[in-house]
Design goal:
Cbl-bd_cap, B12-binding domain-containing protein, metal ion binding, five-stranded parallel sheet, Methyltransferase, Methionine Synthase (B12-binding Domains), Chain A, domain 1, three-stranded antiparallel sheet, 8 strands, 10 helices, Rossmann fold, alpha/beta
């Protein structure tokens, strides 16, 4: 593992490029200095040997310094997306897990979902829509994504008296990946999650609401063809007086056209929202 180590001398921060190795005989980690980099505030990417330049730990460290070029960070994000796309289309779960683990060393699950996985899945959808990707390849990518999320989704015990959130899609909406991301992220925030996606019949959703009495309902719509089905579902659920949030690719840039509808139906539309921002909105709705 390669990382940057800092040392404070007379109030000034200085950095070293360090490599950590495991000594089997001594059964301990040994740190070897690869290069002295000078003042931390003056380090640029060019000071890092090329073979270590785009390591996640290096990019993350430099991203936090004032002199770091955001274009370099974007280059790292772009490269990660390209590799993710390659592994998804190949159905390579092992390679995908490796990307996730490396990315997670320096950032959050939410950032991985928002900046990498969600963007790549959008790209795959566009490729398929434009006839540049076979439906079989799209299914391989989707199934591999779901397997990755399932491996990430370690179910944590909800907090005592945890609020319950029900996640669903309208009947006919079969895109489950956004809901799986929501389930993973919100469960890690301590909420109890009931995920009924994809395409649960309205009757079944109403039954769960009556039995489980969730504190909040999240509705996800990916395809615009399913917006009307979403409206019908919302009309069926509004009488429960449970707060509802509507989001998904299909309703982005539609808040103006749907404004009168959501005001009439106890509904709030979430547009182009990161998972971190969504968590704040959820928290506000549950107060």
């Amino acid at each position: 593992m390669v990382f940057l180590r800092t040392k404070i001398v007379k109030g000034e921060s200085y950095s070293y490029l360090v490599k950590s190795k495991w000594d089997r005989k001594r059964k301990t980690s040994i740190q070897e200095t690869i290069k002295y980099l000078g003042k931390t505030s003056e380090i640029s990417l060019g000071d890092i040997p090329f073979e270590f330049r785009f390591k996640p730990t290096i990019v993350a460290f430099l991203s936090s310094t004032k002199g770091f070029d955001n274009k370099v960070n974007q280059k790292y994000i772009t490269k990660t997306r390209q590799n993710t796309l390659k592994f998804l289309l190949a159905g390579d779960l092992s390679g995908l897990r490796s990307i996730y683990k490396n990315f997670r060393k320096t950032t959050s699950i939410g950032d991985f979902y928002d900046k990498i996985l969600r963007e790549v899945m959008y790209e795959i959808g566009v490729l398929w829509k434009n006839g540049k990707l076979e439906i079989g390849a799209e299914h391989v990518a989707s199934n591999t994504t779901m397997r990755l999320i399932e491996s990430i989704n370690v179910r944590l015990r909800p907090k005592d008296k945890a609020k319950t959130i029900l996640i669903c899609t309208p009947n006919g909406e079969f895109h489950a990946i956004p809901c799986m991301m929501l389930e993973t992220y919100l469960s890690r925030s301590g909420y109890k999650i009931i995920n009924l996606s994809p395409s649960a019949p309205t009757k079944s959703i109403k039954k769960y609401i009556e039995e489980k009495k969730p504190d909040l309902i999240l509705i996800s719509i990916t395809l615009k063809d399913n917006v009307n089905a979403g409206k019908r579902l919302i009309k069926e659920l509004k009488n429960y007086k449970t707060p509802m949030l509507l989001g998904g690719q299909a309703v982005e840039n539609m808040s103006g056209r749907l404004s009168s509808f959501y005001k009439q139906n106890n509904l709030k539309i979430i547009e182009k929202c990161s998972l971190k921002q969504l968590t704040k909105i959820v928290r506000q709705e549950l107060i």
